[in-house]
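Summary of Year 1 activities. Much of the first year was spent building the evaluation harness for sequence design. The harness presents a backbone, in tokenized form, and records the residue chosen at every position. We chose the following record to illustrate the format because it has been used consistently in internal testing since the harness was completed.
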């Protein structure tokens, strides 16, 4: 964050920004990979995605149809070794694909290895009649348990936010950059507060959320755009102080941008599950809508 020449002299101290312990992001300064433009990135993304999909397909082929795979690659038909080759090809493919949507390399590597090793352990259990030791499935299974524990600890360290996040350029939004769930409190016409846990993504000096067209929250925001936002548990129990903000419904490019921000922060939840749920219930709940939340000037910062 630069200081204009008219605001401070050459020797003046520069203000410091809050730094995330998980990613190193600061308010106003994105962490590496957090939405920054990288030269040649489309090529990198395309090659990585293609490689991951090819490895996944090859792995499933070797695992499920080992003889056909052996004939295709002109390799000796050793069923167990082809099963294991399939397991680790799946792990490599998954690791490549996760690297595109998860911001933490260690979490992506642990998740990919967990899947590969668990399939590997299953192979040794299923293929006991053609070789191996009876202890192999148990030893490999124990390794998967340890990896799962390590992955769980790493995900907790990340606050269960595995996707890419954008930095906050206003201090009021810094606590929400890597926050998985927030509670947004809207108000009925009589002023009664109604708290609702939702996902939120920060983008500079604003944040975005999504809702249903016919949801009560959407109707309440239409009548009163003033909201309170606080970090919370998955069930909506506040875990930190709230800020006041004003909501504005987004359309067109703004709505698509909001969807992209949520999808990048929560690749599985808002990239797969929520869109499927919204589409399945569209006849009853209406289409998906997005809102921009801008902190009120009265908030600190």
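For this record, the design step produced the sequence shown next.
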């Amino acid at each position: 964050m630069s200081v204009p020449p008219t605001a401070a002299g050459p020797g003046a101290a520069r203000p410091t920004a809050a730094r995330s312990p998980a990613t190193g992001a600061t308010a106003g300064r994105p962490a590496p990979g957090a939405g920054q433009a990288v030269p040649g990135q489309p090529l990198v993304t395309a090659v990585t995605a293609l490689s991951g999909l090819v490895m996944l397909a090859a792995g499933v082929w070797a695992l499920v149809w080992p003889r056909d795979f052996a004939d295709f690659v002109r390799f000796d038909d050793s069923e167990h070794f082809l099963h294991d080759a399939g397991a680790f090809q799946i792990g490599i493919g998954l690791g490549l694909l996760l690297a595109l949507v998860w911001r933490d390399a260690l979490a992506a590597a642990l998740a990919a290895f967990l899947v590969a090793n668990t399939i590997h352990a299953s192979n040794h259990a299923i293929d006991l009649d053609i070789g191996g030791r009876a202890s192999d499935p148990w030893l490999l299974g124990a390794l998967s348990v340890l990896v799962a524990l390590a992955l769980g600890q790493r995900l907790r360290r990340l606050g269960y936010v595995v996707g890419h996040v954008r930095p906050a350029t206003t201090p009021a939004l810094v606590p929400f950059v890597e926050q998985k769930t927030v509670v947004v409190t809207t108000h009925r016409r009589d002023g009664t507060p109604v708290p609702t846990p939702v996902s939120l993504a920060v983008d500079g000096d604003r944040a975005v959320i999504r809702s249903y067209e016919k949801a009560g929250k959407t109707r309440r925001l239409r009548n009163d755009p003033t909201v309170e936002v606080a970090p919370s548990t998955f069930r909506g129990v506040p875990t930190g102080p709230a800020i006041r903000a004003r909501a504005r419904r987004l359309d067109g490019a703004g709505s698509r941008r909001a969807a992209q921000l949520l999808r990048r922060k929560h690749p599985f939840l808002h990239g797969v599950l929520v869109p499927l749920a919204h589409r399945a219930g569209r006849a009853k709940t209406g289409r998906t809508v997005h809102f921009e939340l801008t902190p009120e000037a009265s908030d600190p910062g």
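Residues 3 and 9 are 9 Å apart (CA to CA). Quantitative recovery figures across the full test set are reported in Table 2.
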